[in-house]
Amino acid sequence: MANKLIVSPAPHVQTAQSTARIMRDVVIALLPALVVSTVVFGADVLRVTAISVVACVAFEYLIQKFMFRGPLTISNWSAVVTGVLLSFNLPASIPWWIVVIGAFVAIAVAKMTFGGLGKNPFNPALVGRVFLLIAYPVQMTTWPMPVRSEALDALSGATPLAAVKHGIVGPDGLGVQHLLLGNMPGSLGEVATLALLVGFVYLLWRRVITWHIPVTILVTMAVFAFVAALCEGESGAVLWQLPLFHILAGGAMLGAIFMATDYSTSPMTVKGGVIFAVGIGVITMCIRLWGAYPEGMSFAILLMNACVPLINKYVKPKRFGVK
Amino acid sequence: MKTFPMGGVHPSENKLSSAKPIEVLPLPEVVNVPLAQHIGAPAVAKVAKGDKVLAGQLIAEAGSFMSANIHAPVSGTVTAVDLVPNGQGLRQMMITIKREGDEWAEGIDRSETLVRECTLSSQEIIARIKEAGIVGMGGATFPTHVKLSIPAGKKAECVIINGVECEPYLTSDHRMMLEHGEEIVVGVTILMKAVGVERAYIGIENNKPDAIAHLTQIAASYPGVEVVPLKVRYPQGGEKQLIAAVTGRQVPPPPALPIDVGAVVCNVSTTYAVYRAVQKRMPLVERVVTVTGKSLKEPRNLLTRMGTPVATLLEAAGGLPDAVCKVINGGPMMGRAMVDLASPVTKGCSGITVMTGRDAERRTASQCIKCAKCVAACPMGLEPYYLSKMTQKKRWDEVEASMITSCIECGCCQSTCPAYLPLLDWVRLGKQTVMGIIRSRAAAGAPKK
Question: Which residues of chain B from 154 to 213 reach within 8 Å of chain A, CB to CB?
């Protein structure tokens, strides 16, 4: 027996998944929404996404190369995911330099400061977006109209959430089909609800995420909207139109499926994930209904991100054999 | 379909040899019989260099209650009682026998005739099992007579037979159920009598429909014996997982034992050995070993005498490929990678799995991405990422409070980690350290009482 033998402790089986494959799957899951968005807003969408991705990867590379001087991990695709998600949170008309600043905040401040992938407490893309929203409020809330905008003229450049909030239209003022197919003003990624759902199904199929967090967020939002409508004395069709509107419009789908499920910024247990998701749903709806902003998804996710260490500390998995 | 309540994984089954009937491996020229083939104290050698022994003759006696007898697997001359490297390269006391013919000790019935009736009492059954040196053959090698001796104040309610074989690749238990089904079911009735219960369940995973059908048909004529089909999920063959899958009861954390929920669990191959020991006075000197791997020419199930060199089994399966490989004693989830292929087959060796190429190598670990897949995969409801991290930080109090001693070392966490982190390596280290701390605390506390 002249064979050379490999010796290592059990287990001797490793998953077919890898960090890079998971991140690549997230990018693939985002592609349908990118396509729909390009159809809706035109080539500007690709311009913004490309700038964001290139800037994110470049910042991560430069920081690892010249500041960390450790191993380079840009090949794990996580900076690409951040880049795409950041661009999905921006209007298509945003100037290129704002995108680059957003990418810097997302990667340099929100991710690499904490040690990089897996160590960041806040979702990098959302930190980038919220920074830009506060620093450049005009550019960040100037929404281009969809290329084919007939029947939407009433919105006059407001997102559906803003239009409903300011009483320009009712929650039924926009057909559900427009909300699903993205024919409305809004940020790149949030308009294509149906395409985001396709991505959700893909992520579930590839076992990248589980359904618990996205479904809990959307159900919480719908229930909250329903109860809020009841309390305001509404009746009839509004009782189902308002909940449906809130989960289809704005960043609800994008946030629930792609942002709240970010591994390092969400809890480690299913139970913790549900608490986290309920919190996001409630905070989002409070901001949407009573806050100064028409949309609250990104604030809600960041606020709940801050609670994750606490949730992980106190919400433990059910131990085998312990009653 | 029934299964255990939390965690688990489903690796590729790769049951390459499930259709291969059990074949008898030609007798080896020399055997090395370790004195420690079981959990507990090593056996004490009763023979010396130059002694002539018969197959089935007692050559080493149980060293304490928690120990097991060892018998000569072949007839011949003892050439040494000395330290020999085992599969992990550690030198261990072994009795070396040079084979001469195949002469058996008196009183052993080697015929295939089925003996159904057993008129022995519970104590007599356990005595015969102890005499035959039977230990858990699924890999844990816990002495069976100890398991069957129910401690005072505890009461067994059912016997659970482990026909799960959830490890990928391995098929020895599957073949045993197909080819020795009736003997196994008689063995089940003997175990029921030994612990004084009326009910027994044979748990078999659903990827072995032929074994389920075969045993269900046989069990129909044995009252109280029921076959329970289970959903395919690793580590269903873990004792606690199997009890939970079959009865719905969860064994509390250590130091609680299965008997605390009224269960006595026994593997199918062990049950067959019990049948042969009690009805035929046959000591445990041979077992079926699956020799398998995608790179082997002919994966097989071989009836092998204990002490046969692993290399002999590999030759019988077509020999090792020329590539660098990993040879695993056991299955790929919990088996141990071997360093010495001349080392012997022992009572707990259910298979030899050979892996080559990418399968044989550990991939490079990167950083934890907090995907929580390890938490979801843990069948004991632990947090492997956290236990691993706290072990690295030597936070033993935190590790103990997070129930590291509940870990069954099934490897689900590490096998599911997309960052390829050596989670179980760390958890094992942490668990051993914490158990040491608990022991020394108990030792320090004992005199005060």
Answer: 168
